[in-house]
Amino acid sequence: MANQIAVVGAGVMGEAFIAALIRSGVPASSIHAVVRRSERGDELVTKYSMSVKSLEEALQISDVVLLGIKPQGLADLMPEIAPHLRADALVISLLAGKTIAGISAGLNNHSAIARVMPNTPTLIGKGMAGYSLSSGVTDAQKKFVQSLLAATGKAIEIPEELQNALTGTSGSGPAYFFRFVEAMVDGAVAMGLSRKDATTLTIQTIVGAAALLDESGDTPTRLREKVTSLKGATAEALAVFDEAGISQIVADAMAASARRAGELAQ
């Protein structure tokens, strides 16, 4: 669908989407980054053979505008974008908490907007994203969004009112996982293992378990049951989790993330 694409803000996540655009089949020559620092622009040109342009020039030629700036910078930037945004352009927002209605209003009621919530594994093409589309997004634009997000990992379309729930699930989810890994490493060290060995054991255990869950076709419940012998060592560990109320702890944490995402959208 897209002939030319402007990437406004090419930090860590913006760069991840530049790489995904190229993986999805967009020629590097059709991607134009808008950056604050010339050194950053030079890095991107060297790495991806793309171009760096001014905001006005990039917007005037682009069919797709991908917003990868920090959410707190959007209000100041929208008045600079609005006068140069093409009426038929698709705007893809990666900005946590920023609603389609708010972005549309700031861009003179622009009608074609995709709100995307990615997560950090996007950086290695293993991300999980949820996206919501405004009513003005065409079928061709929707297909472009789907193709792009497929190159970042996996994606699902959700109603926009569930974006905060998605933030509490997959958006913040990698941090829950990393925190659990930290706790396992600390627990292994407390039992006498070196931190190096504890880290190796924990990471490979988690990586292997995730791969098994992804590839086996079994549910998490079934896989847990398979590895848990009655009155065995694993059963003892799981009993401690249950006594501590792990399901409620996790649910409360996810709800807190979703609630904060909603507050940030105000």
Give a verbal description of the structure.
Helix content is 54%, strand content 13%. The chain has helices at residues 12-23, 38-48, 55-61, 74-81, 100-106, 139-150, 163-171, 173-190, 195-216, 220-227, 233-243, 246-264, and strands at residues 5-8, 31-34, 51-52, 64-67, 90-93, 113-117, 127-133, 153-157. With 266 residues, the protein is of the alpha/beta class. An 8-stranded mixed β-sheet has the order 3-2-1-4-5-6-7-8, with helices on both faces.
TL;DR?
The protein has 266 residues and is of the alpha/beta class. The chain has helices spanning 12-23, 38-48, 55-61, 74-81, 100-106, 139-150, 163-171, 173-190, 195-216, 220-227, 233-243, 246-264, and strands spanning 5-8, 31-34, 51-52, 64-67, 90-93, 113-117, 127-133, 153-157. Helices cover 54% and strands 13% of the residues.
Mean pLDDT: 94
The named CATH superfamily of the largest domain: NAD(P)-binding Rossmann-like Domain
Count of helical regions: 12
- How does the overall form come out from the CA principal axes? elongated
Supply the number of structural domains: 2
Biggest sheet: strand arrangement: 3-2-1-4-5-6-7-8
Q: Radius of gyration in whole Å, from Cα?
A: 21 Å
* Class per helix and strand makeup: alpha/beta
SSE pattern: EHEHEHEHEHEEHEHHHHHH
User: What is the CA-CA span between the terminal residues?
Assistant: 33 Å
CATH classification, class level of the largest domain? Alpha Beta
**What's the story with the biggest beta sheet?**
8 strands, mixed
List low-confidence stretches: none
Named at the architecture level, the CATH assignment of the largest domain is 3-Layer(aba) Sandwich
Beta strand count:
8
CATH topology of the largest domain: Rossmann fold
Strand coverage percent: 5-15%
